[in-house]
Amino acid sequence: MANLTMVFIFEEILSGLSELGLAEGSIRQYTRYFSKMQGFFTEGGAPEYSERILDEYWAFVTQREIPYSQKYISSLWKSVCIVKKYVAGDGVSCSFLTRGSQYNPGAYFQDIIDSSIESLLLEGSTRTFYSTVTRKFCCQLEKKGIASFSDLGLSDVSQIMTKFGQSNPNSMGLVTSNINKFLRYLNNVGICNVQIESSLYVPCKKKKIIPSFSADELRKMLGACDRNTKIGKRDYAILLLAASCGLRGSDISKMNLTDIDWERYVIRLTQKKTGIALSIPMPAESGNAVADYILKGRPKETGHTRVFLTSRAPLRPVEQSAIDGRLLIICGKASIPKLPGRCFHSLRRSAGTFMAASQVPITTISQVLGHSDCKSADRYISANP
């Protein structure tokens, strides 16, 4: 069953804030905050809501080496609270707005929605998503003057779905699926006989071009790491592991000392995203950089088994969010422009693109990157001009 996606959550919240009379400037501000939050989720490979990842985002925001202003932090915290309240079923609300659900249809419609939820045995975030979409749908019916499903026609549904497409352009697949589920229930209980064709309301997704770093940009980033310092040694090793071995930031942060076979220069670990065991060769340059950090940069006798640790007390394993933050600092030092969608994961994409450009077989690229399906590597070929 589908979970509540971050795209849908943000669309609904922004729509709710607008309907509740929030100023356009404030709407734009929240749009920026939610965009940053969504980028964090997307980079972590999690398009659906997760309270754990939301907490990781907050830790990433508050534990930056170059801290944000207190005013900015307060605004970000408010946006986090709005998301949590919405997911908890409190609708769109914050300290200066009325608490409660955003869509409240009349008793006739609400009773049928509740009956459908019980009949379909919906639970958790799936139930929340379905309830939100169907309540919004019924509120639109009331605005059109339709008081009973017996009066519902296909043209009415078509007009409402068009409005959904305007307010929820990036989540129409899930929206349409849930409206279809609701209409099938209405058909089954004999309330109405309207059905829609899902494909009419779901826009075709454009093929995503994967942004990556060029070989020249990678050289500049590596050159920006001061390898005379402990932090520089650590950053240099992390960048090389991502760009040469194609490791995700999450796997680098979770890498243990025992995951490295120094006799064979091989890394063996279980990928956090897929749960699939991975065994890949470690290029000499990358291995030497990791060894240099462990021997000369990594704090001694810490009791930690992770390879990469923080440089300041209290000593602890480096989290993925901190790795993301370090990349931004390094790119700034190397005068590398920030492009939409380009992040630490782009180094993994660069590794795939470099291999594709060197005519490495697609099957080999998939094995190195730990893909379960060779088709997953197609995007790295498309990223190569």
Give the averaged pLDDT, no decimals. Answer: 80
Parts with pLDDT < 50 across at least 5 consecutive residues: 95-100
Major beta sheet summary? 3 strands, antiparallel
SSE order:
HHHHHHHHHHHEEEHHHHH
Strands, helices and their partners?
Blueprint lengths: L5 H14 L4 H20 L7 H12 L7 H21 L16 H14 L3 H20 L10 H14 L4 H17 L26 H9 L6 H16 L3 H5 L6 E2 L4 E5 L6 E5 L2 H13 L23 H14 L11 H13 L4 H8 L8 H5 L3
Antiparallel strand pairs: 1-2, 2-3
Helix pairs in contact: 1-2, 3-4, 5-6, 6-8, 10-12, 10-14
Key features?
mainly alpha, 385 residues, three-stranded antiparallel beta sheet, elongated
What would you note in describing this structure?
- This protein has helices at residues 6-19, 24-43, 51-62, 70-90, 107-120, 124-143, 154-167, 172-188, 215-223, 230-245, 249-253, 284-296, 320-333, 345-357, 362-369, 378-382, and strands at 260-261, 266-270, 277-281.
- The protein is mostly helical and 385 residues long.
- The protein has a three-stranded antiparallel sheet.
- A hairpin with a 6-residue loop joins β2 and β3 (277-281).
- The protein is elongated and about 75 Å long.
Q: Would you kindly provide a brief summary of this structure?
A:
The chain has 385 residues and is mostly helical. Helix content is 56%, strand content 3%. It is built from 16 helices and three strands.
